[in-house]
Amino acid sequence: MDKLYYTLFIFVYIFILVFNIESLSISIYEIELLQDSHLNGFWIRLISLFDIKYSFLLLHIVNLYLMYRLSLLVLNTKKEAFYSLILFALLPSVSLLGVIVNMSSIVIFITLLFLITFINRYFIIALYILFCSLFVDNSFFYLYISLFIYGISRKNYAFIYISLAFIMSSIGIYDIDIGGRPRGYFLTSFGMFLAIFSPFVFLYFCYSLYRVSLTTSKNIIWHISFYTFVIALLLSFRQKIDIEDFGVFLVIFIPIMVKVFFHSFNSHIKELRFKYKLIGQGILISAILSFLITFLNKPLFLLLENPNNHFAYKYYIVKELSTKLKQNNIYEVSSSNKSLQKRLGFYEIKKGKNILYENKPTSIKDSQYLKTIDIKYLEKKVKTYYVILPKINKRKIL
């Protein structure tokens, strides 16, 4: 029966992700990421074999499998490992990686591969994975620092020297800045950590970090998550941190959180397990609600007077706009909004002589006419665009 529930969960989960991939537009952040020199070459050739969005969904599914394999190494039973996988999959920061183009998907993939090989004592392979990570993203800098501290705690001098070499190489490659003047970004950063996990899950994350810190079973996963978290909080006193650089190394702590929970749960007799059941249910409900709000958010447009205030607005509109333009035989537009122009280019709307406005123009020439394009969600108009076309190019409206 448990296998049936797990299979049903995975099926529904992937269905929701696919539904969102089809409904969301590509953001300017994703466009710029795909144009980033660090992603050019191998990664671009790899994802070009599929649709870009679905390539990252496939990578996300692989990451879920790797998290399950890591959980089996940390936890006692398959049932606990499945709980770990479900909680990991429901985290807003993790589930979003299944529907958007984001470097964090690749960082999670490499980090999980490293942990699995390291815990299985395939040290040469783990070292090779670390070497490859050096050329992927600057966020691995914080992983190297955590591994350096882990080496010190284990008095493993080879590990210390190797980690230090990676730290220095990363600084040289990415010109990492950890300076800045004291500023009040701490609360902002704390709020972003709440969003990564969902509030109740984050509280249990902090509790689990503390509980493990009091024991002698502080493994490599705890070192990575704990010291990355500490570094992020310290840096937030001096600068606005990029939460994506740190979040990956925090969510991998999920198996340890599940281990802490089941250790407390199983160490009590049935009559005294009630409060732990409440905690477990609270964690799960918090994760599910955050997941549903993250992905089933389109009805929020009906409640907002100004659609621009929708928290996911930057992932909407453009895909529908490109479809409407094509339906009206408009394949070239020119917009003063450079971000909009780039995003339309992703949907094969080229830059051309037809002028696209986000606000209604006050006047047009006699040789031109104005085409109005409304974007509606759930029968509510959320955005109107205006296109000035030459009269000789006037097309029949479909």
TrEMBL record:
Record has Cell wall biogenesis/degradation as a keyword: no
Domain of life per record: Bacteria
Regions crossing the membrane: 6-30, 42-62, 82-115, 122-145, 157-174, 186-205, 220-237, 246-266, 278-296
Keywords from the UniProt entry: Membrane, Transmembrane, Transmembrane helix
Name of this chain's protein: Integral membrane protein
Source lineage: Bacteria, Pseudomonadati, Campylobacterota, Epsilonproteobacteria, Campylobacterales
